[in-house]
Give the backbone structure.
Amino acid sequence: MMLSGRIQAVFRDVTARHRTRVIPFLTVGFPDVQTTMELVPALVGAGADIIELGVPFSDPLADGATIQKANSHALRQGVTLRLCLQVCATLRQRKVEIPLVLMGYYNQLLAFGLKAFTEEARNSGVDGLIVSDLPPEEAGPLIQECGPCGIDLICLLTPTSTPERVAAACAIATGFVYCVSLTGVTGARDQVSPGASQLVKQVRTVTDLPVAVGFGLSRRDHIESVGRYADAAVVGSALVNVIDNAPKGKWVEKASQFISSLTAMPETSSRSAQ
């Protein structure tokens, strides 16, 4: 399947340079909206290749305690889906050029209106969507609106996904496929789940889209491990923890140092699962 726009460019560069892409996750509005807008360009400077922006939601079923806490904090500050789109638009005005991917839940989009949302997302410079609770069988209406707006719908798969579900998700996915490395919710772990490589291998039998692995990644050796078989690594809870634990006024500095520690690594010469 063809890739589009900024996301396509990122993964074309991976093919040329054989380097695992790092995708940091930030909750919009944590610790505050202004800091989110400072964090994004700082993380780009630290080597981030795509930025995943979490839309705060009252019932984030896919997320563990760390991101749930960040969600609650942002919601108390009045962060909405519309405000998240405004943040993306402002980042584009400030010359942030790398892909921006919004991650949220389907009720948020339905309440906004799918057509209105995708049109505003396009105008705000959003490149892709991850909708954590949207199964492929029910994604038709959103796909219909995303296509004309050039927005990629990035599907989530887990180690418990059946071969049929893997095939169904990959058939509708664009941009890249997001493989969850473990069974459960987000949260930093000590080791990468051994099931992740098998899931990626299965995905590659049914699609030529790039594959990202996330959930539980928190160290440079995790990124190096994932890079042996996947194209990108998503780092969420570990980064949110770094921000949460940083002294006030040091959020951007500490987050940038953390991402730099993950991106400044030897290039990967091959991927065994390809």
Observations:
- The chain has one domain: 5-263.
- The mean pLDDT is 89.
- Residues 5-17 form the longest helix (13 residues).
- Strands lie at 21-27, 51-54, 100-104, 128-131, 152-153, 156-157, 177-180, 211-214, 232-235.
